[in-house]
From TrEMBL:
It holds the Pfam family SH3_16. It comes from Pedobacter helvus. Keywords: Hydrolase, Protease, Thiol protease. The keyword Zinc-finger does not apply. Residues 130-259 form the NlpC/P60 domain. Belongs to the peptidase C40 family. This is NlpC/P60 family protein.
Amino acid sequence: MEGYHVCRISVAPLRKEPTDRSEIVSQLLFGDRVIVLEKEEKWCFVKTHHDHYEGWMDHKQLQQLTALQYNDEQSYRYVTAVNFDNRLVNDNGEVYYLSPGSTLPFYEDGYCFLGDIRFEVKTTPFVPNAAEFTAKVEETAKFFLNSPYLWGGRTFFGIDCSGFVQAVYKLNGIQLKRDASQQVEEGQLVDFLANAKLGDLAFFDNEEGKITHVGMMLSSDQIIHSAGKVRIDPVDNQGIYNAELGKYTHKLRVIKRFV
C-alpha cells in the first residue's frame, strides 16, 4: 500500500488518529495526491502533495498511481470551476459531484484519469491563473458565502477559516499552506490596516498570542471569513466586529499580502 496515491472520491476526511471517531483535521478533494507513509488494516497515514499535511484516512478512498503519474505536475493543472454542478461520470455510468477547486488529473478532451480509470467531465474545468487574481478573487470568495463552518472542512458544504482562504487562493492560481498558523509565516507584511487591499489575508490571535483565525480582506475595512458560516464583517484595528452579536469576535494580529 505504501507509495503514490490519489483521492478517488468527492471528499475524504483526513483524521488525527486511525479511527472513524477521531477528529477531522482536513479533507482531501477528488484528485488530491498523497504519499502513504504507514499502513494499518483499514487505515493509512498519508502526507498530502499540495500542502504537505499529514493525517490518517481510509485506504479504500485512494487510487494507486505510478511514480511517473504522481510526479507529472503538468497533468494536474485543471480544476473544477466555481459552480455547484461539477459532475464526473465513470465508465459504469456512476456520477460524482465535486466541489469547486477539485483537481482533474490528466484532463484532456472532456475526460480525466485516476491511474487507468477514466471519468467523463460533464462541466468545463479551467486552469487557475494567478495573473487574474485581483480581477476574480472577490467573486470566488463570495461564492462560498453562507457555507457552514466545519473544522477541517474544504468544501462549500462545510469549510474552516484557513480551508476557505486556501480554496479561494487555489482557484486563483496561488497555493497556500493548510492552517492559519502556517499561512501567516508566508507573504509580505502590510504595515497598516489602512493599506490593506482586496485579497490580503488578515490573521487573528488568542489570549496566548497563537494565530487561531484567518480571513480575506475585501477592502481596508471589510473582511470575508468562515466563522459560524462564511460571512462578511467590518474590521478595524481592534479586530472583527460582529454586528449580530454586538461585539468584537477576533483580535487582529497581522495582515499579509501574497500577490
